[in-house]
Design goal:
The chain is an alpha+beta fold. Helices cover 35% and strands 9% of the residues. The strands form three sheets. The chain has a two-stranded antiparallel ribbon.
Length: 271
């Protein structure tokens, strides 16, 4: 049997009750001191405080509202292709036309100054014209832009060819219907053609120099025999200001008929 008391702790390892001052960030804390033979970890409360931003000021991750679509006011000489390229519309002029079909009408080539097109927001919620800094991209980006620019004249020529109207009564009526659709003016091919044949027999230079209007100095002119005051009052923006111009004459007359009779289709005599 081992001698009694052999494994008793030596008096030198007993805990002292002495207190030592520990400085943490300027504060003095009284901590117990353990003998030199034992390791000691400072309490967590004694660690230097760290600045923590209040939860209330943390920006919500999903708090950014989606940007509103951009609106573009068309100016003279612009085309859907040009505007689509200017705003880098994904899908080109066809996508731009799809989103503005009600405004543009049935003919995507006939856009007139003053109408406002909605440019849909891109995936990042923005729809803005390309800036000079955006033009400085990688070589691949530049090559892609070069390809689009070189192809643009061909695409525009194809569009113009696709919507070219013949320079005859049929072409004038169809072009007028496209303009009317853009401006929300009702009327059909049959209604327009019927009234033209009665009023002028299809002669765009026709003029009435014998009726009461002529006696007042405002003779009826053109395909649908419109007097100048009526033509000026109901002229449709984007068409010629010459009352003898076939398309301008038809659209002004149909605009007047829509205001007074609901549609040119409802006109079956002098109006």
């Amino acid at each position: 049997m081992p001698a009694q008391g052999k494994h008793r702790r030596s008096p030198s390892t007993s805990l002292g009750r002495t207190l030592a001052a520990v400085t943490t960030g300027g504060a003095v804390l009284a901590l117990p001191v353990i003998g030199a033979t034992s390791a000691f970890a400072a309490p967590a409360a004694a660690a230097a405080p760290q600045a923590v931003a209040p939860a209330a000021v943390a920006a919500p991750v999903n708090s950014v509202a989606k940007a509103a679509p951009t609106k573009h006011s068309v100016v003279a000489g612009e085309t859907l292709s040009k505007i689509a390229r200017e705003y880098s519309v994904s899908g080109g002029w066809k996508k731009l036309y799809e989103g503005n079909r009600k405004i543009v009408g049935s003919n995507p080539d006939l856009i007139h100054p003053g109408i406002k097109l909605v440019i849909a927001s891109s995936s990042d919620g923005k729809a803005a014209k390309a800036s000079p800094s955006a033009e400085r991209g990688t070589s691949a980006d530049r090559a892609d832009r070069s390809e689009r620019i070189n192809a643009a004249p061909v695409a525009q020529a194809a569009e113009q060819k696709a919507v070219t109207h013949t320079n005859d009564l049929d072409g004038w009526i169809r072009e007028s219907l496209a303009v009317m659709a853009e401006h929300g003016i009702p009327g059909t091919y049959e209604g327009i053609h019927r009234n033209i044949m009665r009023e002028s027999s299809g002669n765009p230079a026709a003029i009435n120099n014998w009726d009461s209007n002529a006696a007042k100095g405002t003779p009826s002119k053109g395909l649908l025999q419109v007097i100048d005051p009526t033509f000026q009052a109901y002229h449709v923006p984007g068409t010629s200001t010459d009352s003898y111009d076939p398309v301008a004459n038809i659209t002004a007359a149909c605009n007047y008929a829509a205001d007074r009779y609901g549609s040119i289709d409802n006109v079956f005599g002098a109006y």
